[in-house]
Amino acid sequence: MSLVAWLSTPFGYPFMLRALIASVLVGGLCAVVGSYVVLRSMAFLGDALAHSVLPGVAVGFLVSGRGDRHGLFWWALGTAVAVSLGVGWISNKGRIKEDTAIGIVFAGMFALGIALISTVRGFAVDLVHFLFGNVLGVSMWHVWTIVAFGGAVLLLIALFYKEFLIVSFDPTLAVTLRLPTSFYRYLLLVLIAVTVAVSLQTVGLGLMLAMLITPATSAYLLTRRLSSMMLVGAVLGAASSVAGLYLSFYFGIASGAAIVLVSIAFFLLALLFSPSRGVLRRLVH
């Protein structure tokens, strides 16, 4: 088989083409949003949001029925947004640290999800693709959903880039400039929640955190500015998605896991060979 045929064969199938579009979009989106998650040390929030949508999906299953995948998405999205706002409210009004609030909400929502799952026979089997991802099973509806919500997230980040930068990394300056810090803080939490919800079909609950932080962390090792970090992270996320799909097609590996493994491989390369922060550079000097 020639190289051209080897590269083009997988995407001769419509389901692989849809998977390619969806995974590239999700990889880029997760890297951009994940830049804030990494720099603000909010990795626990991404993991908590991914697992906290479980009760929303469970309720959606009970309300919408077994075959309504669209309904499950809306329930997952609503739950993710509600949990993110709940975390912000508890940490603000309760005067406790954000990671403590995340832990409390995460534990409660995950326990509620397990309780709901345990009441319905055959429910766990139907939710396997939410736990582990099923990018090969995405429909055009899923693709357009990612385009719409992902585009909205990226647009808001572009519009409020300076405000997010100031609020996240210089709170004193934000107060001096009289920026509505609470509004931007809640908005960032919602953007992370939306990103988690639209990415579930691609990599699932179990691997969501890896796609949210790994490309962004790799970019952090290679760049100095937030804008450059977002751009490089998006490229690495998209490249991980493409390479992971090839591994999945030719070697029979689960698609979500393959994408994450490639992303981690990129991270290890950046960790070793980064010109400014790499392990080898420190050893040489």
Walk me through the structure.
This protein has 285 residues and is mainly alpha-helical. The chain has a single domain, classed as ABC transporter involved in vitamin B12 uptake, BtuC (Orthogonal Bundle), CATH 1.10.3470.10. The chain contains 15 helices and no strands. The protein has helices at 3-8, 14-39, 43-52, 54-64, 69-93, 98-117, 123-126, 128-132, 140-159, 161-169, 171-176, 181-222, 226-251, 255-273, 279-284. Helix 2 (14-39) packs parallel to helix 9 (140-159) and helix 4 packs parallel to helix 6. The longest helix has 42 residues, at 181-222. The chain is globular and about 65 Å long. The model has no long low-confidence stretch (mean pLDDT 82).
Task: Give the CATH superfamily.
Answer: ABC transporter involved in vitamin B12 uptake, BtuC
| Structural class determined from secondary elements | mainly alpha
Instruction: Count structural domains.
Output: 1
Helix content: over 70%
β-strand amount = under 5%
Q: What oligomeric state do these chains adopt? A: single chain
The main pleated sheet reads as: none
Mean pLDDT value: 82
Instruction: Tell me the radius of gyration.
Output: 19 Å
Helical element count? 15
CATH architecture title: Orthogonal Bundle
